[in-house]
Amino acid sequence: AQSVTQPDIHITVSEGASLELRCNYSYGATPYLFWYVQSPGQGLQLLLKYFSGDTLVQGIKGFEAEFKRSQSSFNLRKPSVHWSDAAEYFCAVGRPMEYGNKLVFGAGTILRVKS
Amino acid sequence: DTEVTQTPKHLVMGMTNKKSLKCEQHMGHRAMYWYKQKAKKPPELMFVYSYEKLSINESVPSRFSPECPNSSLLNLHLHALQPEDSALYLCASSLGVGQPQHFGDGTRLSIL
């Protein structure tokens, strides 16, 4: 069965500092991996996705993620954090189905940005 | 701006009321999803419609009744809900195999 672990429940970084959010997954085949961001009271916005190919994936808002099969990881990074990045971040692994994919989410990491 | 539109944004209802949540997308996606999200938790899948047919029901109580009248529209009919059903209800859609899901902003539901 597929599963996702986000080891950090909360992370606080200073504005302008770099960021790395950790994500480890368990899946029997080549995974479809996603990072979503959720601001308070809003839905989930897709930051980036990995299906295959280049293991370094670029996303929106200056985010990137690196797929490491040997470590079963898909960590999210940003070189310089802005105050508007404060939100909750969810990593998800998708099992492809005929209609799309069935997502399993990690528990989420809440990012706080201090000025 | 989200491409998946959910209405209403907020809903307060009593345990004996009947109400409906609505979700609409015009991206040509053929799969649509309902999720329930409690505070400080990730979304939990409730239902999936594929090509307007119910594909997945994750053992959701019958007081939640989904409906997909056409490929752009998804409804969730609510009846005799319990206080523990208070949550954010999210709709999503996706284009095809392995493709990412696009989420709406959700309906915040409160049961009195």
Notes on the structure:
The complex is a heterodimer of chains A (about 120) and B (about 110). Chain A has about 120 residues and is an all-beta fold. Helices cover about 0% and strands about 55% of the residues of chain A. Chain A contains no helices and 12 strands. Chain A has strands spanning about 5, 10-15, 20, 25, 30-40, 45-50, 55-60, 65-70, 75-80, 85-95, 100-105, 110-115. In chain A, strand 8 and strand 9 (about 75-80) form a beta hairpin. Chain A is globular and about 45 Å long. The termini of chain A are far apart. In chain A, about 35% of the residues are buried. The mean pLDDT of chain A is about 95. By secondary structure, chain B is an all-beta fold. In chain B, about 0% of the residues lie in helices and about 55% in strands. Chain B contains no helices and 11 strands. Chain B starts with a strand and ends with a strand. In chain B, about 35% of the residues are buried. The model of chain B has no long low-confidence stretch (mean pLDDT about 95). Chains A and B meet through strand 5, strand 6, strand 10 and strand 11 of A and strand 5, strand 9 and strand 10 of B.
List keywords for this structure.
heterodimer; A: mainly beta; six-stranded mixed sheet; 0% helix; B: 112 residues; four-stranded antiparallel sheet; 11 strands
**Structural shape of chain B:** globular
How far from one another are the termini of chain B?
A: 31 Å
- Poorly predicted residue ranges of chain A: none
User: What proportion strand of chain B?
Assistant: over 45%
Give a brief rundown of this model.
The complex is a heterodimer of chains A (115) and B (112). Chain A is built from no helices and 12 strands.
Topology at a glance:
The complex is a heterodimer of chains A (about 120) and B (about 110).
Chain A: E1 3-5, E2 10-14, E3 19-21, E4 24-26, E5 32-38, E6 44-50, E7 56-58, E8 64-68, E9 73-78, E10 87-97, E11 100-105, E12 109-114
Parallel strand pairs in A: 2-12
Antiparallel strand pairs in A: 1-4, 3-9, 5-6, 5-10, 7-8, 8-9, 10-11, 10-12
Chain B: E1 4-7, E2 10-13, E3 18-25, E4 31-37, E5 44-50, E6 53-57, E7 64-70, E8 73-79, E9 87-94, E10 102-103, E11 107-111
Parallel strand pairs in B: 2-11
Antiparallel strand pairs in B: 1-3, 3-8, 4-5, 4-9, 5-6, 7-8, 9-10, 9-11
